[in-house]
Amino acid sequence: xxxxxxxxxxxxxxxxxxxAVAPAYAQGQPAVLDSADNGLLxxxxxxxxxxxxxxSDLDAYAVSTQNFAAHLDWLSAHGYHPVSLSQLITASQGGxxxxxxxxxxxxxxxxxxxxxxxxxLLRAYNYPALVAVITDYVDMPAxxxxxxxxxxxxxxxxxxxxxxxxxxxxxxIELASHTDNLHHGVQSNPQGNSTPAVITRIYDxxxxxxxTAAEYQARVRADLALSVARLQKNVGVSPxxxxxxxxxxxxxxxxxxxxxxxxxxFDLEGRSTPVTRDLHGLARLLVTNNPTVIQLAYELRRDVExxxxxxxxxxxxxxxxxxxxxxxxNLDALIERVKKVGPTHVxxxxxxxxxxxxxxxxxxFPNRHLPMRADLFNRVAWQLKTRAGVKxxxxxxxxxxxxxxxxxxxxxAIQTPESDGIFRLDFTNPQVRRIIDDVYEDLAINSYFEGxxxxxxxxxxxxxxxxxxPEGDDGxxxxxxxxxxxxxxxxxxxxxxxxxxxxxxYAQPVLEPQSAAWFAQRLDLFNKAYDHxxxxxxxxxxxxxxxxxxxxxxxxxxxxHDPQLSQTMFExxxxxxxxQTPIPGARLRAQIRRLQAQGVRHFAWYPDDFIAGRPxxxxxxxxxxxxxxxxxxx
Length: 634
What we know:
By secondary structure, this protein is an alpha/beta fold.
C-alpha cells in the first residue's frame, strides 16, 4: 500500500496574493489571524527535491528546494519563530514559554534529501527541526526496495546512521520515531483489504481469525521498542516523540509510546494545537503538491471555519449483497459516484436495517452483542477515504439496537405506551449502557472513521422513562441523552482519537419549541455539545404543502440559536417517501441555492442512491460538490 491519498491543497491564486501582500488591516478591516496565533503551528514535509514538476508531479509529497527555501524566508519575514521539540516540551511543563507564532518544522520518513537539501538550509537560517525516522529503512541492505508510491525507493533514498549522527550533533536536528517498520498496511478483513498497521487488528486468512488484543498490543510494543533501541544504539539518543504513519493511532498506541519514553505524538488532523501539558496528537499541516510561498500563505491565513460541509448519507445496506461479486460491483459504483460528486464527507451506515424500521438488526463490523451481517464497514470506509478522498463518519444508532435474544431485548427496551416509533433500549439501565458502549468501542477497534453521526433514534417522548426529570427550561431530558452520546463518543475515542460529532435533529422542535418535550431534542443544546447538528430539513416528510416556504421558515427559526449558521447542517430529502417518488434534481439544486442565499453553509442529503444514480450525477455535483468548479473530471 502506498501513501494515503490525503486531501489536496485548496488553492485560490487571487485570494492568496491578497493574503500574502495585502493584509486585511491595511484595508481597514480586522486582521485575519494566522493559524499559529492560537497555538503551535507544525508543518509536515517529506521529500525536498530540485526537480519537482510545477504541477502534477508524480510525488504529491515532494516540495522543490526553491519553494522550500521561499517558505523559510516567508516564515521569517512574517514573524514566525521556529522552535525545537525540546523547547516545546519545556514550555508544556511550565518552563520557558514559546515565542509568539511558534512553528515546528517536521520531516517524515527519514529521506536522504533531509541531509542533502534541508540540513544546509536549516543551518543557513539557524532553524531547528524534527526528523521522524523509519528506523528499519536506515542503512537497509542493498537490493531492498520500498514502495514509495510513485517509484520504488532504495537505500540511496534514505538517510544513513552517519548522516543522522552528524545532523543530531549539530543541535538543530532532533530525532523522532516514525516506527521501526509499521509504515505499511496489513490485512484488516476477510476480503483482503489493507489498513494502517498501527491501528489494525490483523486478519489471518489461513486461521480465519483476527489478532487478539494481547497480540496486537505486543506487536505494536515490539516495533516501537526496536525503533527506540536502534536510535539509542546508532545515534546515542532516546526519541521523545512518535510521528504516527498515516496519522493513524489510538490511545493504546500512545500509551505504549509514552511508556517507551515518547510522551509527544503527532498526527495530521487540524492546523495548530494549543500547548498544554498533554502533547499527544499534536496537529500538523501536511505540505503537499509543491506549494509556492503564495499558496502556503493563503493556506495559513484562510479561515477554515468558513469551509462548508457537503455530506452524502449512504446506506451500506445498498452495498451489501450475499453475492461477493455483486457486492464488489456495488462498492465500485459507490466509490465512482463519490469521486464524481466530490463531497467533503460521507455519513456511512454502520448498522444493518434491512426491514427499514430505523433500528439495527445487525452490524457491519465485528462486535460482542449483535449479529454481524458482514465485515463490511471498515472495507468501504477505508476505500472511500483512500480512493475517493472524503472524510467518513460512522452513522450508528444511539438506542435502537435489536438484541438477538427476544426476552433480553424486551426486558431492556424502553417501555412505551406509544404504538409507533423506533425500537429503543432504555439507556438509564446500566446493562444497556455497557452494551451500547461496547458496540461503539467495537466499531472503533475494527474500523477507520473520522467522526460519528448519531442516528435519529435518539429521542424520548414525554411519556417515556418518566423516572428522568421533566424537560423543563434547562432541557434535563435532552441533556441526559446528550450526555449518553458523549459517553459513546468517549468509548470510541479510546481507539479513534479526535472524533468529530454530528447528531440528527428533527425539524419540529426547532419550528415549534414547545414540542422539545415530546422529543427531548433542542438545537441550542445540540450545538453546544456537537461539532454540527444535522437538521432534518425535509419538508415532504413533514407534510408541507409549500416546501420552499417551509425551508425559509426553518432558516429563520435556526438563526435564533445559530445566528451565523456555522454549526447547523441542513439535511435535505431526495425522495418523497409518502409517494416513493424522487424529488426532481433541478428542484433540489434550487433549494440549495435558495438556502445558500440566506447564509446556510452546510448541507447533506439522504438518501443518495448510488446504484440507480439518483439524484443524477449532474445534479449531485452541482448541489453537493465541494469543488470550486464541480464539472466532470476527464
